[in-house]
Amino acid sequence: MGGYTIAELGSIFSMQAFAGLILFSVFVLMALGLAIIFGQMGVINMAHGEFLILGAYVTYVCSHVFSHWLPWAYPGYFIVAMLLAFVASGLLGLLVEWALVRHLYHRPLDTLLATWGLSLVLQQVFRSVFGAREVGVELPEWLMGSLSLSDTIQVQINGLFVVGLTILISVGTFLLMFRSRWGLQVRAITANRTMSGAVGINTRKVDALTFAFGCGIAGIAGSAFTMIGSTSPSAGQLYIVDTFLVVVFGGAQSLVGTIASAFTISQAQSTLEFFLSGSTAKVITLLGVIGLLMLRPQGLFVLKVRK
Amino acid sequence: MSIYNIDITRRQLIKMIGQGAAASALFGTGIQSAFAASPATSAINTTGLAVTDTTVKVGILHSITGTMSISETGSVEAEKLAISQINEMGGVLGRKIEFIQEDGASDWPTFAEKAKKLLVQDKVAAVMGCWTSASRKAVLPVFEQYNGMLYYPTFYEGLEQSKNVIYTGQEATQQIIAGLDWVIKEKGAKTFYLLGSDYIWPRTSNKIARKHIVDKKGLTVVGEEYFPLGSTQFNSVINKMKLKKPDVIYAIIVGGSNVAFYKQLKAAGVDLTKQTLVTISVTEDEMQGIGGENIVGAYACMKYFQSLDNANNKAFVAAFKKMWGPDSVIGDVTQAAYLGPWLWKATVEKAGSFDIDKVAAASPDVEFKGAPEGYVRIHPNHHLWSKTRVGRARVDGQYDLIYETADLVEPDPFPKGYQ
């Protein structure tokens, strides 16, 4: 790297570290909802990407509603949109669990097929309602641009927002899972479904809520992604591969594993992208993940489960 | 056939036409008079295409479901508009155009299947269709085997030429070279950073751009990178560009990645009103998804912008909005798709026949003076002579025309020295 001053290199490296941090946050947001459902219930939700995009479309609708009828509240619309995205995706999750998934708990492979079909149906619904083209979601002024920490170091405001949101949601999820009555029941069911039922836990209800909660988090993530990515009927497909990668690599039943794996993959990818090119970085990251999964098929972290 | 005022079966019809032909041969009287001004079907359709005395069938073959429907919807709309306008003017050789629409579903084997259906089963006289190079490559053997005529609207990488295809979009050298010359002269650009999505069109286009920049102009390419289709993370490459400080970012990123790229560029504090960025992949269609505020100031190099100030274009934009809603936007490819039915009509009328071989042979030098982009003419290599233009993105999602070539640029799908 000849010809650059130490200061220039320093600022690029700090910005690059921040780029890695953003990617990490995005991965965690994408994967958390899937990890909850996959890990706790053993259901592979192929329609996860569409739940994300539902959140994005809710945000799009919100931005229009606010700019037309509530212009004075426009700066705050994004927060409202995220809450509504959580509610919308959560409710849809509840419906899907009730109508589709609960009939298939004993046939995990069929849930794969059923939710994949669901993802196609949802994509076509989005297309019919919002049109096939991408829609642009306008951001309020305060989320745009970057903070200049020095002459050469700029930090994206929406990046900071995503990082903050990720911390908030992760902490919230952990409190729910490990400090609440509901979380205790979820973990009990994960460990032994029959026994949990025998001691009086309403496994039906807990399953439904878990599924809805996972989908709701996907909705929030989708809402946040309108800041960095595109909103179109099939945009969910852009995220689904990375999401599965993170969840499987982390060990399906461990939320800590999901976060650790998101961190490993994001740092590897963003560093490689800097020194190599985009496509090559992706290939090397994928090869690394495949190699590690061959050595350790259960993923990074494993939870002991009574079979 | 209402002059006979009776219902007739197909067999009777054939018999009557036969008798008519015999009669006209015997007595030297033209049977054409029975069909008003339009020529006899038997004379203008010798290969069994779906042409009757009053109608002619054409196919529309685009993705209206799946990923590519984002882009292809505009093309379908433009083709339907052109067809309805042609019908209002009395059709082609006195026949109204009826279209059969098939969905390629963003899946290349499906495109090939549907193309075969249109040609073999429906016997359409022409097909307006395809968008991605992958779909065109999939249908090409079908069109060549069953001898069909395809009007293909997208700007593409070149390196192809077929008797059975008319390319109404620009090939790569038309789109790239004039734009590069402009930015080198106008902005004094010396260093370039080439970016693209990882598939054939961006790679071939950047190869041509690199040859032109390095070999012909003696300037420098400081970086060249590709991202998987659908990639949504560009922060690393943005940092790299900040380090290398190129005079020009040359971006050929497509689809959902586009949105992510420009949003992240903006968020990273790269102001495109100060940093020169030239793209050949963002039309007004894509700008809707990206959001004008994220791309304002960027330069796009193509042959058509919705804002072009000429009488043809004003009429076209008004008609398009009347048919498809006041919020419609029209990008380069949509306009090129609009040219397809018109060029086909002009060619059929020049050939005096719907026969594919005659249409293909008559195509060179067919011109269309009503083109929204101005004037176009078909080159013997089945591509179009067209002007190349540079536009600058506005915050409302439109382009301001900055520069256009003085003359039509010759299409050169197999450019020497650029391969």
Write a concise synopsis of the structure shown.
The complex is a heterodimer of chains A (307) and B (419). Chain A has 307 residues and is mostly helical.
Describe the structure in your own words.
The complex is a heterodimer of chains A (307) and B (419). Chain A is an all-alpha fold and 307 residues long. Chain A has eleven helices and two strands, in the order H-H-H-H-E-E-H-H-H-H-H-H-H. In chain A, helix 3 (77-99) packs antiparallel against helix 8 (203-225) and helix 5 crosses helix 6. The relative contact order of chain A is 0.18. In chain B, helix 5 (133-145) links the parallel strand 3 and strand 4. In chain B, helix 4 runs parallel beside helix 5 (133-145), helix 6 (172-187) crosses helix 7 (200-216) and helix 13 packs across helix 14 (356-362). Chain B has a seven-stranded mixed β-sheet, sandwiched between helices. A five-stranded parallel β-sheet of chain B has the order 2-1-3-4-5, sandwiched between helices. Chain B starts with 9 loop residues before the first helix and ends in a 15-residue tail after the last strand. Chain B has helices at 10-27, 41-44, 69-88, 108-121, 133-145, 172-187, 200-216, 235-244, 256-267, 284-290, 292-295, 311-324, 332-351, 356-362, and strands at residues 55-62, 96-103, 127-129, 150-152, 165-167, 191-197, 220-227, 248-252, 276-279, 299-302, 367-368, 376-378, 384-385, 389-393, 399-404. At the A-B interface, helix 1, helix 5, helix 9, helix 10 and helix 11 of A face helix 3, strand 7, helix 8, helix 9 and helix 10 of B.
